[in-house]
Amino acid sequence: MRLARRLPGVLVTLAVLLGMAFALYAVLRNRPQDLPWTRLDLGEPIGAFTGRKLAALAGRSGECRALLHAAGVRYTRLPAVRSSAQCGYDDAVRFQSGGAQAIDYSPARLGTSCPVAAGLAKWEWDIVQPAAQRLFGARVESIEHFGSYSCRRIYGRSSGDWSEHSRANAVDIAAFRLSDGSRISVVKDWKSGGDKAAFLHEVRTGGCKLFATVLSPDYNAAHHDHLHLDQASRGEMGWRVCR
Fold it and tell me: Which ranges carry the Extensin-like C-terminal domain (predicted)?
């Protein structure tokens, strides 16, 4: 009897929720980047699920390379490397100059896992260059880095989990050189105040939309001179780290 009395109210609630779901879908269907089940397109604006889709490309190297190609990113596929049972990679690519990317890397021709490469391309187009143009009226011409592949555990540990660097699934960013000749360095400018510090904080926070893990000097002393970006595979709905 109680169930019978409550049934109309339950049906009304379900109808309202269903109506809201349809209304939300009607809004989001024109923004596929905000839906978890749509295919990733590097040419679309960053959406709610872009970062998770990028990280989920791990183990799907063919799909990842096809996305880079479709977006105009020039690259070469790197031969597989197996340094040990814990270290190595088989889906890495090396950036080539030209194409849709305007930023060079120093040392040149950075090689990373394909999901990291895809994240870096989006980071350049949607985060780094817009911030530089707005704050300095200049373009970023090159990014200085400390490398990607390194067969080691998480920094400072002699045991425990292996770093994403052990699979070329991370990159450490040290500095940015602009078209006006200026240089913005993590170690020098992170806490300096002014536009350079604002730029570094903005590209760090923007990177959190595209990478599974972003670590900066705000995280610990080991990251005082670089931004660590990786695509740790935690699934499309997995937890993310932004510090």
Answer: 63-243
Phi, psi of 97 (to 5 degrees): -70, 155
Phi, psi of 144 (to 5 degrees): -90, 140
Closest of 135, 144, 147 to residue 230, by C-alpha? 147
Domain hosting 18: range is 1-30
| Burial category of 172 from C-beta neighbours within 10 Å (exposed 0-12, middle 13-18, buried 19 and up) | buried
Cα–Cα distance measured from residue 242 to residue 117, given in angstroms and rounded to the nearest whole number: 19
Q: Tell me how far apart the alpha carbons of residues 27 and 156 are, in angstroms, rounded to a whole number.
A: 47
pLDDT digit string, tens, across residues 35-63: 888 999 999 999 999 999 999 999 899 99
| Total domains in the fold of the chain | 2
State yes or no: pLDDT of 199 exceeds 90: yes
Give yes or no: residues 116 and 11 share one domain. no
Pairing of strands 213-215, 81-82: unpaired
Residue 35 counted as domain residue: no
- Residue 150: helix, strand or coil by DSSP? coil
- On whether the CB atoms of residues 189 and 195 are closer than 8 A, the answer is no
Q: State the DSSP string of 171-229.
A: EEEEEEEETTS-EEEHHHHTTS-HHHHHHHHHHHHHHTTT-SEEE-TTT-GGGTT-EEE
Write a three-state SS string for 81-101: EECCCCCEECCEEEEEEEECC
Angle between helices 114-122 and 61-70 (to 10 degrees): 30
